[in-house]
Structure formats: C-alpha cells, structure tokens
Amino acid sequence: MREIVIVGFPKCGTSALIRGFEKEDDVHVIRSPNGSVDACFPDRTNLPDDKLVVHKCPSYVLSRTDLEALRDQVGGADIVLCFRPLPRVLLSWHNMHRRIARNGTHPNHFVHREPEFWANCSVDDYYRKSVHRFRVDLFFDQLTRVFPAERITVVAQERMARSVGNVVKVLKGEEPAEPEQRRTYVGYADRTEVEIDPEILAALDETYARFLDRVAQSGVRTLV
C-alpha cells in the first residue's frame, strides 16, 4: 500500500490538493472523525490495500516530536510540503483568523482565548504576535531531519493554482492530464490592498529566501 501525507504549510493550497486527490477513483483519503480533511494522527485501521492512501496533517501543530511520531505511524509514506510566498500567507491567515474571531466559529480555536485582539488586530500586529508560525525554514529543517529527502516533494501553491489536477497526477506518478491555466486563481491574499510594514516584509522575504535556499540544497523533488 502506497501512502502520501500532505503536511502544509497552512494557507498554501493543502486543502485544495487533498480534495483533488478525493476526485481520483484509485485514491482513499483519510478524514478526521468529524469529517475534516485535517487529520493529524488519524485512525489507520481497515485501509484499502488496492488504493493510494492520502491524508493531510496540518503542519502548524508539528514539532520535532510530532514529526517523529508521524514517521513512526506512516512508515514509508511520501511526504508533500506545500508552500507560497510568506506575505501572501500572512494576509490570508490574518483574514481567516479575524473572521473566525468575529463570527465565533470553531469554538476550540486558539483565537477565542483573546477574541478582541484577533478580531480587530492589524496585519502588522497579527504578524508580531504570530511570528513563530512563519518560520518555514525551521520547519523544513526539522522535516528533512526526520524524513529522507528522496521521500519529500515540495509543491508551490502557484503550480496548484494553475492545475490542482495535474499536480495530483504527478504526485501519483502519472502524466499530467489537462492543460494548465495561463492565469492562475486569484484569492483574497492576492486581491487585498492592505499594506504591510516594510520591516515585516523584509523579515518575511528573508525567511522565505532561506527556505527556498534550503529546499534547493536538500535534494528534494520540487513542483513549481
């Protein structure tokens, strides 16, 4: 039985990717007990032997200990890491968490511990309080220490925006099946006109450059 685990990063197309896998007849997607596509350490009983098994494990909950536990659980699974430029992640995450705080949805979500802050914070204040969530370079380091490079594929959100279906086919080991769009999907983070403090932009760009450099040096497969 072959298995693929999608590990993030958040707001980088992971949900779109796993839903793309669900459209494939020869794929079995593991969901959490509540039906969510986020399934950190899901029940793995009665998995089909004749299908590719895929599940999405949200990267923002993964410490080195969690990654080692995931490795022990999934054995020789292939690992897929989705990414996109960090300013776009910041804008999208800020919008989502502010909406959750204002609407009162997802009652166990961390934003409800300080709802006034998260409901009204600026993009810059959001970043300053959440800076640890953007260290994609450190997460990638941890990932490559736990899983061998030959089992890791790094996928750009921009590639998925052109054709999720083609990314799914390539990850399955098949030929792309559809023409890719010249103009990619434009979401909230790309439409917004919110300005980000130049110092924060510089910090995000520096972290993102380190991440890309480490990906280039690591020997992992890339789909960009």
Automatic annotation (TrEMBL):
It comes from the Bacteria. InterPro entries: P-loop_NTPase. SUPFAM superfamilies: P-loop containing nucleoside triphosphate hydrolases. This is Sulfotransferase family protein. It comes from Acuticoccus sediminis.
